[in-house]
Known about the structure:
GO terms for molecular function: hydrolase activity. There is one protein chain. It is built from nine helices and eleven strands. The chain is α/β, with parallel strands linked by helices. It has a single domain (5-221), classed as Rossmann fold. β1 and β2 (13-16) form a beta hairpin. α4 (52-64) packs parallel to α9. Residues 26, 31, 74, 133, 158-159, 162-163 line the site of tricarbonodiimidic diamide.
Amino acid sequence: MSQSAFIAEPFALPFDKKTTALVMIDMQRDFVEPAGFGEALGNDVSLVRVAIQPCKQVLEAARKAGLLVVHTREGHRPDLTDCPPAKLTRGGKTFIGSKGPMGRILVRGEAGHDLIPELYPIAGEPVIDKPGKGAFYQTDLHLILQNRGIKTLIVCGVTTEVCVTTTVREANDRGFECLVPADCVGSYFPEFQKASLEMIKAQGAIFGWVSNASNVIAALAA
Ligand code: TIU
């Protein structure tokens, strides 16, 4: 019997390894490394870098437990035809597609768009290129999860209040149960990190559950 439960708030979340996937959101150089898009926007990347090691431990535990692992990347075609004009005008001087220290910002194929080496996908792990903040919008993520019979998602990555919670809300509306390990998600804004995690688990798990890396690792190893 593979039914188990994650220790979580507001209450334990039962899961089955066969129907659980790890979704690693946008752990891209542009968001996490110095000199990327995140830092160019004026943010302190050390605040999101603290999530790297916990993410690495959860990723290793998920691989060992045989979970489906999916990675996402936010970015656009080099000609930016998939970038809404309204999104193109944001970010002050740091426009999507403009030249950054790690290539054109949030453009597919550029160095800064790539996933960080610490969490690099291995063979068999789908990588979803997404044009939006949510991982379901204009991608085949839902199809991939459905085809594998996935019901539960462990959602990690950056940033907590932007792409992580957008994805959790999208997933929740599609019937998935989402668990967010608090130390595996990062924000440039401590107050947003705190509020986002509180919102997820409020009102009896309105969008999902909140836990931490060690609880997830223990449950996956059981
Ligand atoms: N991946 C993601 O969260 N994209 C963002 O643009 N996040 C910010 O917090 N800016």
